[in-house]
């Protein structure tokens, strides 16, 4: 069988297969225009289906999870890079901005942490975690009055939070060390 004949045979077989798919007797008339009675038409098939408005958030989950692991391992540069990636994937993820701010504090890039804290506040508001982290940032900078103010805001919102209580103790010991 030559090339043109083989091509013609394949085309004919394809037409038979395709026409067989279209002639199945299901009792449903199929047209290009969806009708209200046609249950297979796409026009009404997705009524009530909710779509996710910010799919990007889910794309950042893996970066945030790995960033938290790196942070716990005290690999602050790696964690910061991953949190930064997460903020690029999902700019409305307040947790990613908080993580980026904390990493930036640890590597003493306070210019970056200030920016990240502003973004986080816009997204998560004045939560105890936010004020606690900002207070710790001020503590690292040696701005003890600002640290105290932020820690007290966190304490007012969450008086039983052990992290806030520990940071207030840390601040107190920092002040005592300065007085010596």
TrEMBL record:
Q: Which InterPro entries match?
A: TPR-like_helical_dom_sf, TPR_2, TPR_rpt
Q: Extract the signal peptide range.
A: 1-24
The question of whether RNA-binding is a record keyword is answered with no
Alphabetical keyword list: Repeat, Signal, TPR repeat
Answer whether the UniProt record assigns the keyword Signal to this protein: yes
Q: Where are the TPR repeats?
A: 128-161
SUPFAM superfamilies hit by this protein: TPR-like (SSF48452)
Coiled coil (UniProt feature): none
Q: What is this protein called?
A: Tetratricopeptide repeat
Biological source species: Mesorhizobium prunaredense
Q: What is the lineage of its organism?
A: Bacteria, Pseudomonadati, Pseudomonadota, Alphaproteobacteria, Hyphomicrobiales
């Amino acid at each position: 069988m030559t090339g043109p004949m083989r091509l013609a045979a394949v085309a004919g077989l394809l037409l038979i297969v395709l026409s067989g798919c279209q002639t199945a007797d299901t009792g449903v008339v199929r047209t290009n225009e969806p009708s209200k009675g046609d249950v297979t038409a796409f026009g009404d098939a997705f009524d009530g289906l909710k779509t996710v408005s910010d799919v990007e958030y889910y794309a950042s989950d893996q970066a945030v999870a790995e960033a938290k692991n790196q942070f716990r391992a005290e690999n602050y540069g790696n964690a910061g890079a991953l949190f930064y990636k997460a903020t690029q994937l999902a700019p409305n993820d307040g947790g990613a901005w908080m993580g980026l701010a904390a990493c930036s504090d640890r590597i003493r890039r306070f210019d970056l942490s200030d920016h990240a804290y502003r973004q986080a506040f816009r997204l998560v508001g004045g939560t105890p975690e936010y004020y606690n982290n900002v207070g710790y940032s001020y503590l690292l900078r040696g701005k003890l009055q600002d640290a105290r103010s932020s820690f007290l805001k966190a304490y007012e919102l969450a008086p039983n939070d052990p992290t806030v209580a520990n940071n207030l103790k840390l601040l107190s010991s920092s002040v005592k060390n300065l007085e010596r």
